[in-house]
């Protein structure tokens, strides 16, 4: 009887320790850069999630402060085990032909369904992400399976938390051919086209970033991380410096 009672108590304790843990974050950034893409100016980015036994489910979004800024809402589900990670995401943004959230037509909606697999250790992480459904097509109309491979290396120096990231597009991503019909200064017609890509038109380094973060504990529940980041896209020849501040749970 005592052994059974001890076993029951041990099981109850283990279950109590495995209860779901919620978390939240609310950030303001001076410029929105994502995987080398310039997605807007000052914006507000809330996030809420819950973790349980290696699973992590979270919702995050982004909204600007101007009426012309585009809304974004992403849902992520990940599972981590001994450093390995597998996940799926539904990423949605305005700016497509049909900007309704509950529209799932692959050709017109703003939804992109992405899978990821990766590995993380104390030295850093390596993750491969591929869009396998939703609005993701090459210029020729075929499904693109746009992919992004990211290497992240964190370290601590000068009492700051640093994060170095390198992102590579392994092959042609989704894109669109844009036609133009204009006239030059002399009145001669200019007719042509150019191709724009989600990541890149082939293999290329489309993100290189360096972020420094200082975290200020506020109380036993909340902390205040402040960061400055240099975010560049070597393939496109662009670079930005930005800062952000957030209120997050410990």
Q: Percent of residues in helical segments?
A: under 10%
- Helices and strands: which structural class? mainly beta
> How far apart are the termini?
41 Å
Uncertain regions spanning at least 5 consecutive residues? 1-16
Q: What is the total tally of β strands? A: 16
Structural commentary:
With 250 residues, the protein is mostly beta strands. 6% of the residues lie in helices and 62% in strands. The strands form three sheets. Strands 1-4-5-6-7-8-9-10-11-14-15-16 form a twelve-stranded antiparallel β-barrel. A two-stranded antiparallel ribbon has the order 2-3. Strand 14 and strand 15 form a beta hairpin. The N terminus is likely disordered.
Structure summarized in a few sentences:
With 250 residues, this protein is mainly beta. It is 6% helix and 62% strand. It contains one helix and 16 strands.
Secondary-structure map:
Layout: H1 2-17, E1 21-29, E2 32-34, E3 37-40, E4 43-52, E5 55-64, E6 72-81, E7 84-93, E8 111-121, E9 124-134, E10 147-157, E11 160-169, E12 175-183, E13 189-197, E14 204-217, E15 222-233, E16 238-249
Antiparallel strand pairs: 1-4, 1-16, 2-3, 4-5, 5-6, 6-7, 7-8, 8-9, 9-10, 10-11, 11-14, 12-13, 14-15, 15-16
